[in-house]
């Protein structure tokens, strides 16, 4: 489990911390949606909380996908730096050969 997952678990386990987090999130991303100053824990655990949690989980999945993608790109660069053929790098990483060529021009 990564640092983000641990932080998310701690956030969900502490009701007051969770409410503060939701208030801050709403102030930043949905300033006109709810009067965040009067938001109570009971309010947070209603339907709005479910929607926000689904959104946060979606964003975490997106961040993980982006991280994996960046890792695969780094592998492409390292393999190319060691002289491996573009076709083989493509086969190993799952990137199309055009994508491998693009990465080689950008990073090498």
Can you walk me through this structure?
The protein has six helices and no strands. Helix 4 (47-81) packs across helix 6 (97-107). The radius of gyration is 21 Å and the shape is elongated. By secondary structure, it is mainly alpha-helical. 6% of the residues are buried. The mean pLDDT is 78.
Give the strand content.
under 5%
Fraction of residues in helix: over 70%
- Cα(first) to Cα(last) distance is 33 Å
Please state the oligomeric state of the protein chains shown.
single chain
Instruction: Based on Cα principal axes, name the global outline.
Output: elongated
- Sequence stretches where pLDDT stays below 50 over 5 or more residues: none
Instruction: Give the radius of gyration.
Output: 21 Å
**Class inferred from helices and paired strands:** mainly alpha
Q: What's the count of strands?
A: 0
What's the helix count? 6
Major sheet summary line: none
- State mean pLDDT (0 to 100 scale): 78
Which H/E pattern describes the elements? HHHHHH
What are the main properties of this structure?
6 helices, mainly alpha, 108 residues
């Amino acid at each position: 489990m990564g640092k983000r997952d641990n932080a998310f678990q701690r956030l969900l386990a502490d009701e007051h911390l969770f409410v503060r987090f939701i208030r801050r999130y709403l102030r930043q991303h949905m300033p006109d949606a709810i009067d965040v100053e009067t938001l109570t824990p009971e309010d947070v655990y209603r339907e709005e909380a479910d929607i926000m949690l689904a959104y946060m989980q979606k964003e975490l999945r997106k961040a993980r996908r982006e991280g994996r993608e960046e890792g695969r790109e780094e592998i492409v660069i390292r393999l190319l730096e060691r002289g491996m053929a573009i076709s083989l790098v493509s086969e190993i990483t799952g990137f199309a050969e055009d994508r491998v060529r693009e990465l080689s021009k950008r990073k090498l």
